[in-house]
Amino acid sequence: MPILNNLMQQLVNGLALGSIYALIALGYTMVYGIIGMINFAYGEIFMFGAYAGLVLALTNYVNVYVALLGATFITMVLGVVIERVAYRPLRRSSRLSALISAIGVSFFLSSLMVRVKGPNTRGFPTLFENRIFEIGDFQITIYQIVIIGVAGLLMLSLHLFVTYSKMGRAMRACAQDQDAASLMGVNIDRVISVTFAIGSGLAGAAGVLAGIYFNAVQPYMGLLAGLKAFAAAVLGGIGSIPGAMIGGLVIGLTEILGVTVNLSEYKDAFAFAILILVLLFKPSGIMGRKANKKV
């Protein structure tokens, strides 16, 4: 059944790509859920993670797991620094001020990488053999298995952390009411720093996975990926962690299916078309809730 095999093939391709978008989207949705701000620098943190993985991968005796963990740690530290320097001083300012600061950080990081590594695309080293497994006419590569597996493990770990850990409960309390959480003894600054660290670490891990999958990194790779991940977060319901996961997978599948039906020249437009439709017909997203204003 060629049609079924082709559909399964594109489903796997879409899941691999969507897993990368979902990891970035989680950062958007976590930060918005707690402080109501869109951190548009996550695309560039994704790029920073890809370059961190590249530098580590070029080091002798470093395997894919060390590169992944190292890049995740580096971007977690970067996320905390960005929060302290660019966002914390503006926390009580208007949302427009925070948005402008986020855009400024985004341009700063991409320009910094151009200065340090140059503007050209660089190949990502082969960390392990990309074997192909055939099931009839259906094929899946070891790269796709690793990307889907690692992304799934990270998402599951985040869900367990937010649901069962003390810090996770503090994060959920801050998302509901920061003032009440503060009165109950929750350290708001610490919760926000941890949120930025986790979101940035997930974006950094996604950067390494993207470098492995596409075998290329470049300083502006985070711009489009970040915008698509933002569309995924809105689609799933901004502020909803499960929604961000679902939204990322949907955006990835839609993009791949668009290429399958010979619309590859419009593949980058699908995410934004979905974003417009969601904002028009269901602004709260798939799993989002309508905000209740306090009076």
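the 2nd protein, sequnce then structure:
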Amino acid sequence: MKKLTLKDVAKQLGVSTATISNAFNRPDQLSANKRTEILEACKEIGYTGPNRAAQILRKGQSNIVALVLADSLDYMVTDPVANTFIQGVSRVLRENQKHLLLYAGDSDTITDVVDFVDGFICYGAPRNGALSTQLNQQSKPVVTVDFNLEGRPAINIDNEKASYEIAKAALRPGDRAAILGLRLIDSPSTCRIYDSPLLDAESSITYRRLDGYCRALKEMGIEVATDWIWNLPENAGMYAVQAAREVLQSWPRPDVILCMSDIIALELLQCALTMGIDIPGELRITGFDGIEEAARTRPYMATVCQSSVEKGMEAAKLLLSGDNTSMSLPYEIKLGETI
């Protein structure tokens, strides 16, 4: 069917285009009865109102906020930390009659949506680094979460300090230590980092976590060579299982393994228990994030708890307020039963 235009509808109903437009956009210009009559007639012929895209371009406001995720949508929506963050953003937007558009961080460009949204929340450094540049070059508001863009407000926790504190609680003098990290190098597979160039070292939260671990290790007089640091390309079980098997079969086996997420730590814990390794007697494990599953697992995971729902809510509030002040949120160290 041909899409009805404003002129088509006005002709069919025998009224002016201004009357149709007023019925949808300026109800105070018509009597209540006349507006109801026009809207009912439009509904009968299948006309839902003036072109929404044209209205957005004309008014410069859509009531839509784009949430740019760090990676592909199919991966991010299955990540429990990202999932609860999205819930927080959605809650605040709904309360303010705004709509949410999820946008993949591995997309080619943001130009497809930049004209049709009121602003951007960027959750994690996008896998396609060009998106960060594009976000900073366009004029609409941007709030970043878990990474920084120059001149834009950010929501973070102190990842370096939190990682330092959980590592310091787990380490003992003379320990052999290993680190299971996330997206430290540009590799599509689980591997040791060796001498590979670091990925997004200035902006990535995983490097702040690595900095915290290294500070604690240095204070304890423990050296960790790069072949005892693993890189996982995604925060997913399949990559974590591979890393867990490799590190647990290494000789000599580490006394403590510092994991950059609870998902990694939980897979490591299950592998260790399956192998009959006593936790924490023979091996100590730390996680990061404080997901619900970490609290349900026995033994309880030692981890850094952050509220991803609160982080999402604060990011949405910051964007809607127009404030340009960055915010550091609190976290809690849970010592659990794995250290």
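The domain at 6-59 is CATH 1.10.260.40 (434 Repressor (Amino-terminal Domain)). The radius of gyration is 26 Å.
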